[in-house]
From TrEMBL:
Residues 61-70 have a biased composition (Low complexity). Residues 29-60 form a coiled coil. This is Transcriptional regulator. The chain crosses the membrane at residues 108-131. Keywords: Coiled coil, Membrane, Transmembrane, Transmembrane helix.
């Protein structure tokens, strides 16, 4: 090696070039050695995975081979003969040899078939798992649930039930000027324009969707302040009396509105789905529009003409958004939030049925667009492919009469504060029926065949739930 302080002449410069070349060679050698180690490690991992797969396939083939051998009568003992007779070669006819060759071919074909099936199942499972993981990773998670709340009644009896709290937010984030709904500067924050509780019991025999008026008068508990822009929670906001339900979402976001609904219902909410109405349009367009039925054109006092056609109409984009936002629709007997809740329920069930149709599920482009739009406009907790399929499949039973839509019982007229007042006894009866999975208030209990004794001998009358 040369000393960098020695006089520089041609010989020194030559030696330094050699030193530099040796240094570069050494570095390249170290780098190549590291790469070779990584390649060997990857190869060992691949071999291990292949060995695991080969072992699984061998088990499948072994089972299939045993089954084929048993079916054809060709086991280890040969043509079904006792082992004692296998001691020496016995003369065989040409017919027996032909039969043995056919049995061997059948056994071989059975093993090949088993291998192919095992490989296809292995590949399909991997692809399905990968797609499901990709879908689930798209959803925006925001803390919302409190499944250990003291407000939950008969928690043990609700095991297996799926309760989805669905909140439609009227945030103006992302709204365009032509949407005619204002912007985030003029109307900051977010309110819960829509609050629905979808109940799917453990037996999956029915589904009930209960809507809550946004102006329902509540006693809001103390909640952590929620920033709708960042999705983060902050300081505690003191409780408030005689306020509107939609203020719970404005102040405390998903956690606060979940707490309020659990106090009112006693139900264990295990899924929260928040939907931004401005992004909601993308979901509708992704599935090619949502069909609704109208007996007359739809015109709103504030939004103007929304739908000019009648009959079965497919709504898209802004038209669909205005359909679920309109509150003062001419021809609507309620001319209020109650009519809007009915239209929202109608639209939600139609959207779910459309999404679950063959036209969407078997169209990769539409399904991917819907998932992307859903992820862009939705937030919540414990929502993913499995949970949403449970909700959507339950909503598909609407035509068969297995889905019931209703509004939480109220007085029906606003009080001096402009709030809707809850009918407490009727509300208690409603949610008791849902929690206990008994007939709804006003429903006839299941009639038993003539001559079959009732569950309570000696009782001639059957108690019915109070009407809502």
């Amino acid at each position: 090696m040369t000393d960098q302080m020695e006089p520089v002449d041609d010989a020194t410069m030559y030696r330094r070039k050699i030193d530099d070349s040796l240094a570069r060679f050494s570095a390249a050698h170290d780098e190549l050695e590291a790469e070779e180690k990584e390649r060997r490690a990857r190869k060992e991992r691949l071999v291990a995975r292949l060995e695991q797969t080969r072992t699984k396939l061998q088990r499948v083939v072994s089972v299939a081979g045993s089954a084929v051998g048993s079916k054809d009568g060709t086991g280890e003992a040969g043509e079904g003969e006792p082992e004692a007779e296998q001691a020496g070669p016995a003369p065989r006819t040409r017919l027996q040899e032909k039969k043995q060759r056919r049995s061997k071919r059948t056994l071989f074909a059975g093993r090949i078939t088993a291998i192919v099936i095992a490989v296809l199942v292995f590949v399909a499972t991997g692809v399905a798992w990968g797609a499901k993981t990709w879908f689930n990773s798209k959803f925006n998670e925001i803390a919302a649930l409190d499944e250990n709340s003291a407000d939950i009644r008969n928690a043990a009896g609700q095991l297996g039930d799926e309760n989805f709290l669905i909140v439609g937010s009227d945030t103006r984030e992302g709204a365009e000027l032509e949407d005619n709904v204002g912007d985030a500067d003029g109307i900051p924050g977010a309110r819960s324009d829509t609050v629905m509780l979808a109940h799917v019991p453990k037996d999956r025999q029915r589904a009930v969707v209960v809507s809550f008026p946004r102006d329902l008068e509540i006693s809001r508990p103390a909640c952590e302040r929620w920033d709708s822009g960042t999705g983060e929670y902050g300081e505690i906001v003191e409780a408030a009396e005689q306020v509107k339900l939609n203020t719970a979402f404005t102040v405390g976001g998903p956690r606060c509105v979940t707490k309020v609904i659990q106090q009112l219902s006693g139900m264990k909410i295990n899924h929260f789905v928040g939907i931004d109405f401005q992004g909601f349009k993308g979901m509708v367009d992704a599935v090619g529009g949502v069909p609704v039925h109208l007996d007359e054109p739809m015109r709103d006092q504030e939004l103007g003409l929304i739908v000019a056609e009648t009959g079965d109409v497919v709504l898209r984009g802004d038209q669909a958004l205005n359909f679920v936002r309109a509150r003062k629709v001419y021809g609507d007997p309620t001319f209020s939030d109650y009519g809007r809740m009915q239209r929202q329920q109608q639209f939600m069930s139609s959207l779910l049925r459309t999404t679950m149709s063959r036209n969407v599920l078997f169209d990769v482009g539409k399904l991917t667009d819907f998932v992307n739009a859903f992820a862009a406009s939705t937030f919540g907790e414990n929502i993913g492919v499995d949970q949403l399929l449970t909700l959507a499949q339950s909503m598909r039973g609407l035509d068969a009469g297995n889905v019931e839509f209703m509004t939480v019982p109220t007085v029906g007229e606003a009080n001096e504060r402009g709030n809707e007042v809850l009918l407490e006894r009727e509300t208690r009866d409603l949610f008791h029926a849902l929690i206990e999975n008994t007939p709804m208030p006003g429903e006839e209990p299941e009639q038993k065949p003539p001559g079959e004794p009732s569950e309570s001998p000696g009782s001639e009358d059957t108690q019915q739930a109070a009407p809502a």
